[in-house]
């Protein structure tokens, strides 16, 4: 039996981030000064420019992954090419925070389900139990009929854990619950360049409202700048 | 000065600020519901689609009234039909609640969101909990 506990370690740090903060390190001097941009969230590196110009700030990216969704279809980074996606971690039999999280994420989904550029991805942290049929049943019970709009995905557990870390949701083996797991109920908003651009407490209605408001901001940015293989440079 | 006099004075002082001596259990059912039940069954007892059954307007609360104390105490697994819809989700048990707390939760649920179902006495809940060896007598 997997236990689920909230980790607060990331909480104040990440959830306290201002919503539409201009990037302090990358305040662009270009024409879109008027447009609010979402921050880049996560580790960052300052890389000296090979040409001797100003140093580049390089942000952590989501690693290459391959998952399988409730329809038995592969889900990879390419699945979200030129799209933005919202991701979380759950498991089908979780009785504690998952129902609340998923009902909040459902609220976001209802708002954007007709926009093909916004996709949803829920990872199970209990792949041993949550087989593809279990995930399919779960999705159908939530009212999600089109797997390509909201993927309920599975992979080997270490893959899922590594991804949870990359999405800043910190799933890990819990020392409090032997054999158990713990992680936050966080949602991550990801851009087409594999960068996390927002982290939201999925148990907090106000935080989820902020996500609903920030999705169009990111969509606008993505429309203005075609996706590239590397991070946009200041 | 004897302590009973002090206690009496403290009580009177408390009562005078509208916080009665026996009011710390007021609305306990609603508070316990918010703590232990709302994250799954919803703040308004609405449930979650076909994943988690509703409590608001649920026929199950009337039909299975005698089984509800043990359902909270021991949890439940397997299919369950509420308002004609089959649900199949694990509900965890609550060994951490006293009989009186279970009574207050049940009375809240049976009378909230337009529900108008028969309430319970603590004694009745304790007796019903004996069926699953779940009574703590408190």
Automatic annotation (TrEMBL), chain A:
Signal sequence coordinates: 1-31
UniProt domain Thioredoxin: residue ranges: 56-217
Highest taxon in the source lineage: Bacteria
Pfam families given in the database record: SCO1-SenC
Disulfide bonds: 94-98
Signal listed as a keyword: yes
Listed transmembrane segments: none
Protein residues bound to Cu cation: 94, 98, 183
Gene Ontology molecular function: any one: metal ion binding
Gene3D superfamilies, per database record: Glutaredoxin (3.40.30.10)
UniProt xrefs under InterPro entries: SCO1/SenC, Thioredoxin-like_sf, Thioredoxin_domain
Coiled coil: none
Keyword set, alphabetical order: Copper, Disulfide bond, Metal-binding, Signal
Family the UniProt entry places it in: Belongs to the SCO1/2 family.
Protein name: SCO family protein
Origin species: Hymenobacter aerilatus
Lineage, opening ranks: Bacteria, Pseudomonadati, Bacteroidota, Cytophagia, Cytophagales
Automatic annotation (TrEMBL), chain B:
InterPro entries: Cyt_c-like_dom, Cyt_c-like_dom_sf, Cytochrome_c-type_DH
Location of the Cytochrome c domain: 24-113
GO MF: electron transfer activity; heme binding; metal ion binding
Keyword annotations from UniProtKB, A to Z: Heme, Iron, Metal-binding
Pfam families tied to this protein: Cytochrom_C
PROSITE patterns: CYTC, PROKAR_LIPOPROTEIN
Name of protein: Cytochrome c
Organism: Hymenobacter aerilatus
């Amino acid at each position: 039996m997997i236990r689920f506990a909230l980790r607060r370690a990331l909480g104040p740090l990440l959830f306290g981030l201002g919503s539409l903060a201009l990037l302090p390190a990358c305040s662009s001097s270009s024409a879109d000064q008027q447009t609010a941009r979402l921050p880049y969230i996560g580790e960052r590196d300052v890389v000296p420019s090979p040409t001797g110009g100003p140093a580049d700030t390089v942000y952590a990216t989501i690693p290459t992954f391959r998952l399988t969704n409730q329809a038995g279809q592969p889900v990879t980074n390419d699945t979200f090419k030129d799209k933005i996606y919202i991701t979380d971690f759950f498991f089908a039999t979780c009785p504690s925070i998952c129902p609340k999280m998923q009902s909040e994420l459902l609220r976001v989904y209802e708002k954007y389900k007709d926009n093909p550029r916004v996709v949803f991805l829920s990872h199970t942290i209990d792949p041993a139990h949550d087989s593809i049929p279990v995930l399919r049943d779960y999705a159908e019970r939530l009212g999600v009929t089109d797997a390509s709009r909201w993927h309920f995905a599975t992979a080997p557990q270490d893959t899922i854990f590594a991804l949870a870390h990359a999405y800043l949701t910190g799933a890990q083996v819990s020392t409090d619950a032997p054999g158990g797991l713990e992680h936050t109920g966080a949602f991550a908003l990801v851009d087409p360049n594999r960068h996390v651009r927002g982290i939201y407490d999925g148990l907090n209605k106000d935080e989820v409202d902020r996500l609903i408001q920030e999705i169009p901001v990111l969509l606008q940015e993505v429309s203005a700048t075609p996706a590239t293989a590397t991070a946009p440079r200041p | 000065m004897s302590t009973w006099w002090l206690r009496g004075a403290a009580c009177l002082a408390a009562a005078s600020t509208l916080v009665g001596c026996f009011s710390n259990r007021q609305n306990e059912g609603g508070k316990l519901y918010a703590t232990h039940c709302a994250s799954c069954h919803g703040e308004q007892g609405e449930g979650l689609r076909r994943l988690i059954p509703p409590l608001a307007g649920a026929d199950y609360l009337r039909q299975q009234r005698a089984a509800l104390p043990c359902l909270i105490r021991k949890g439940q697994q397997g299919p369950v039909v509420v308002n004609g819809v089959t649900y199949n989700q694990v509900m965890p048990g609550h060994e951490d609640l006293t009989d009186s707390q279970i009574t207050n939760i049940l009375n809240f649920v049976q009378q909230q969101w337009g529900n108008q179902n028969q309430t319970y006495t603590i004694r009745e809940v304790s007796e019903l909990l004996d069926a699953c060896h779940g009574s703590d007598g408190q």
